[in-house]
User: Which sequence fits this backbone?
């Protein structure tokens, strides 16, 4: 479930290959600067990723302000990389055909967004809400049910925002899609249990992440209610 599934690509695209490397390398550097823990090698990074899947959500990052400012300067352009319209590439996976495939480039942009949100910077919060990045990430979360890296980064955003308690971002998470929000409650309660594939119906690969986001939302709501009455 770590990637988008097996199979061969119908064509070489900018999403997976040499053409994507420059952008991906730049994003890796930006992520490592913002979050020093991510500056480790590939093996350590994978171990950290697997650990985060089963332990606690990331804590607030002490990110260099100039690094955050540099990323925010290009945030609108980066979010445009997430758009699918006009992308005619196709990839065949063991469970079906993706048109277009999500691709490493988009996953890495979502990774950067999650890292930025974890910095708990008010400037980041304002910029993320203004560019509409989170609803786009949630749309990808639903559209690609078998990309565990994407699911992890979206879950990380949710955990960071709910732990931080930034009023604007929390409202943005809960607001309906029609109002420019993410409809987190709808994502949790309406998540597809099964996905139609070439092999027949299969369990959606993002359900574990959906469950954790739902549990976190319930926990935060219960804590807020207890604080209000106590």
Assistant:
């Amino acid at each position: 479930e770590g990637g988008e599934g097996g199979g061969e690509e119908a064509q070489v695209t900018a999403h997976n290959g040499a053409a994507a490397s420059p952008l991906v390398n730049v994003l890796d550097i930006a992520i490592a600067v913002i979050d020093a823990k991510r500056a480790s090698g590939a093996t350590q990074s994978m171990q950290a990723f697997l650990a985060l899947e089963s332990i606690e959500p990331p804590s607030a990052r002490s990110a260099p302000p100039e690094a955050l400012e540099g990323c925010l300067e290009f945030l609108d352009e980066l979010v445009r990389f997430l758009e699918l319209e006009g992308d005619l590439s196709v990839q065949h996976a063991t469970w079906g055909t993706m048109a277009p495939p999500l691709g490493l480039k988009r996953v890495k942009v979502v990774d950067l967004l999650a890292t930025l949100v974890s910095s708990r910077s008010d400037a980041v919060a304002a910029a993320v809400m203004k560019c509409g990045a989170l609803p786009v990430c949630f749309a990808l979360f639903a559209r690609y049910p078998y990309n565990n890296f994407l699911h992890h980064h979206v879950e990380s955003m949710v955990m960071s925002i709910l732990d931080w308690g930034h009023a604007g971002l929390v409202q943005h998470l809960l607001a309906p899609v029609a109002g420019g929000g993410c409809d987190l409650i709808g994502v949790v309660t309406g998540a597809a249990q099964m996905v139609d594939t070439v092999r027949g119906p299969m369990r959606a690969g993002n359900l574990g992440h959906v469950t954790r986001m739902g549990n976190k939302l319930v926990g935060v709501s219960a804590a807020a209610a207890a604080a209000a009455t106590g």
